[in-house]
């Protein structure tokens, strides 16, 4: 990947994170805007938008850091585990999903239901499966498991700082831009950085 492509990817992902965070804030942080509606205070509303845009930039940078860490981890895993890297990724996915349910529920107040935690894990898994399916369809079938690993394991790891607060609003405010940015980067990677085989095929077609 050239530096020009990386800068373009960085800026677009940064803007996507900001937009996703602002849109999410309209639903989960309504009070941050409603308090300035009566009486109407445009400058305060604009300030709130800037605040959430800044937070979105931070979430986007977290996502991009996780994405490039994943690229390194995937290559490292292939070199260390070789043919066993696939099963290792599957085990890690199961382990992370279990932790996503078990530990928050364990630290929840007495009498809390486990259903919200199970639903959260299933939603992330379902979203990851959908993205991994698209990735595999656009590239190759072997890309399915690594894509699912990224969308589940890496996303949850990026989400940990907010998960520790156990604040539903902030959890939602962060997970939406994380999923949006991670999906965008994952599905764009093979378009801006095609595999050697595809690049050679493209060059052959251009030379004809």
Q: How would you describe this protein?
A:
This protein is mainly alpha-helical and 208 residues long. α1 packs antiparallel against α7. The protein is flat. The C terminus is likely disordered.
What structural keywords apply?
208 residues, mainly alpha, flat, disordered C terminus, KinB-signalling_activ, membrane, transmembrane helix, KinB-signaling pathway activation protein, transmembrane
Helix/strand-derived class? mainly alpha
Overall mean pLDDT = 89
Number of helices: 8
Q: How far apart, in Å, are the first and last alpha carbons? A: 26 Å
Question: What string, H for helix and E for strand, traces the elements in order?
Answer: HHHHHHHH
What is the alpha-carbon Rg in Å? 20 Å
CA-based shape: flat
Contiguous runs where pLDDT drops below 50 for at least 5 residues: 199-208
- Main beta sheet: none
Helix share bin = over 70%
Beta-sheet strand percentage?
under 5%
Number of strands: 0
Keywords: Membrane, Transmembrane, Transmembrane helix
Protein name: KinB-signaling pathway activation protein
Transmembrane segments: 9-28, 48-72, 84-102, 114-134, 143-164, 170-189
Organism: Salinibacillus xinjiangensis
Quick summary:
The protein has helices at 3-28, 31-34, 42-81, 85-106, 115-138, 144-163, 168-192, 196-207.
